Amino acid sequence: MENHRIQIVPGCNPIISAAIENLQDRWRQYSNRSKSKPLAGLLEEIIDPALSEYAKKIPRNYLPYILGSGQDGPLSEIVRTKPVGAELAQRNLIREFENASSNPAFSNPAFVATLETLVELLWACSDKRARHTKVRGLNGQRRAQEFCRFCGKPSELAAYAAGSDSVDIYHKSTTLQLSSTHCHEHRVKLPTGKWNPAYKSASMSVAKFDLELDRLTRQSRNYETLSASSGDPLVDQYIYQYVHRFGFRPGDKAEMRNHARGIVDAKLSDHKKRVLVLQQQGLNQSNIATILNVSRQSISKSLASTPEKFLAISASSSHHPGFNDEFRTKIRDIEPSIMDWLDDPNITDIMLNPDGRLWLTRENRSKAELGTIIESSQAKLIIATFAAEAQISPDAGQTLECELPGLLRLVAWLTPIVESPTFAIRKMAQ
Ligand SMILES: [Zn+2]
Fold it and tell me: What is the whole-number distance in angstroms between the Cα of residue 156 and the centre of ligand 1?
């Protein structure tokens, strides 16, 4: 753990990233346990000043979302008093910020990237805690792993330390034998003393789990480009769509671990991923078989044995039947990705800010994400195309509202009310 590099999330503020680099150059000898080289002392020297400098550069109402900038005292103090769990507290603050900023005008990817980096920092700090910490009165010789080795649930001991006392789960007679490395489902032995079959099968597939988790993590870190580095462009494409479908960010460690587990347990092999991507591109089974150099029967078998929830990934970018071809072509000519977002059932809102940034909101994600940037001339064409489709004539100088029945509603603000045209599209549930 001493050599673990803290991940700087792309977009992180340079004051913070520089301080973290500096910290890592020096922190090898430091730990939460050491009296002569306390980790909190080093944080006080390097991270606290960087955070207060950063705090001066951001809006005041952002401050409550940064751990260590409020009433709890500086970050070093938080790590001193609460070496474990601080990263979860910061993670929750990010969620709160994302909820508070559901209005895309307040969305701030750089601020969130900085907060995500702080989560990484706090996580690394918790790894440097003393190895003999008392866990809620258990004189722990063992150090609880935050996550189960095989999934995104906390290890039994970590769940217990965090306050989960469920007697149903933690049989009273075995309370002192909580697993420090596995969750309840994946613990090595059952309370009866027998080997746990779920442990056995998960340990057989641990290499696959690590591989899928690495791919999801890499893609979440470089969200906008194909980044899974699987060695196969079709598999990379699948992972890209998967990560976008769920909107994973680097801080979503538990979720990605659970999804990696799900992919492995469902036996969604790379072969099946390729088939799904090709099918989504509109190829029929014979064509897919030719490309992958296998029989058509094996393609149909692959699809038949793929659980429904994974098939849905490929359905997400199929054409929405409600838009006619002429409309499609017009929108695609202006900006192709807009048609993709209109077709994607997971995207609920598309909004254009006056600065030309298009923001997207996905179902079940509070945070808007940046789609692309367009020119104001393109914005005008888009609005005009929607208006024509809804058979409304746009009067200059007015707001324009139109509805494509069953599909969406669009509200647009045109010049001169605003400096450059903006709009908000709310899609109707399919
Ligand atoms: Zn588990």
Answer: 9
